[in-house]
C-alpha cells in the first residue's frame, strides 16, 4: 500500500512539473535560483524610500501611488529575459539542478562568491596598474606628461601681432 502511495505521489509530482507552462517553470526557476527575488513587498519598499526623501508629501498620496506600482511587470520582463535565452528543456534541467543538493549549495554561496570575485578583480586591477606604472616610471616614461599623439596635421601657425 505504501509503495502505491509513493508511486502515485511521484507520478503526480512528475505530471505536475510537466503540466507547468514554460512561463510558470521560469517563475519557479527564478524563485529557486535566487537570481531575482520575487517579492510582492517591493512596491512598499520603493514607497518607503521615497517617503524618506519627500517627507512633505501627505500619507494619503502614498497609498494611491503604491497601487500604481506593479511588480508583475518587472517579473514578466525577467521571465522574458530567461525565456529568450533558454529553451524549455534547458529550464527543466536548471530546475532539476537548483532542486539538487549541489544546486542549493550554489544558491547559498553565490552572493558571497560574487562579492569575493568583485573584490579579487578590483585588487588584481590595482596590482596591474601598479606594475605598469612602476615599469613605465623606471624606464622614464612617466617623468613628464607624454606628448599628445595625433594623426592629423599640426594646426596652422598664427601670425604674431
Summarize the structure.
The protein is mostly helical. It has helices at about 1-20, 20-35, 40-55, 60-70, 70-85, 90-100, 100-140.
Description:
- This protein has seven helices and no strands.
- With 161 residues, it is mostly helical.
- The protein is extended.
- The mean pLDDT is 81.
Helical run tally: 7
SSE order, as H and E? HHHHHHH
**Oligomer designation:** single chain
Overall outline: extended
- Uncertain segments are none
Report on the biggest sheet.
Answer: none
Write the layout of secondary structure elements.
Layout: H1 2-19, H2 22-33, H3 42-53, H4 59-68, H5 71-85, H6 88-99, H7 101-138
Helix pairs in contact: 2-5, 2-6, 3-4, 6-7
Key words describing this protein structure:
single chain; 161 residues; mainly alpha; extended
Amino acid at each position: 500500500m505504501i509503495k502505491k502511495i509513493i508511486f502515485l505521489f511521484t507520478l503526480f509530482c512528475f505530471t505536475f512539473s510537466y503540466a507547468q507552462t514554460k512561463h510558470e517553470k521560469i517563475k519557479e526557476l527564478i524563485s529557486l535560483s535566487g537570481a531575482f527575488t520575487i517579492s510582492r513587498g517591493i512596491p512598499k519598499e520603493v514607497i518607503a524610500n521615497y517617503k524618506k526623501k519627500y517627507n512633505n508629501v501627505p500619507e494619503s498620496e502614498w497609498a494611491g501611488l503604491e497601487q500604481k506600482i506593479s511588480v508583475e511587470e518587472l517579473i514578466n520582463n525577467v521571465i522574458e529575459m530567461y525565456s529568450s535565452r533558454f529553451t524549455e528543456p534547458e529550464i527543466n534541467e536548471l530546475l532539476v539542478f537548483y532542486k539538487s543538493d549541489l544546486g542549493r549549495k550554489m544558491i547559498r554561496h553565490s552572493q558571497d562568491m560574487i562579492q569575493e570575485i568583485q573584490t579579487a578583480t578590483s585588487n588584481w586591477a590595482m596590482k596591474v596598474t601598479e606594475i605598469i606604472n612602476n615599469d613605465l616610471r623606471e624606464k622614464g616614461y612617466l617623468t613628464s606628461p607624454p606628448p599628445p599623439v595625433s594623426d592629423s596635421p599640426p594646426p596652422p601657425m598664427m601670425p604674431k601681432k
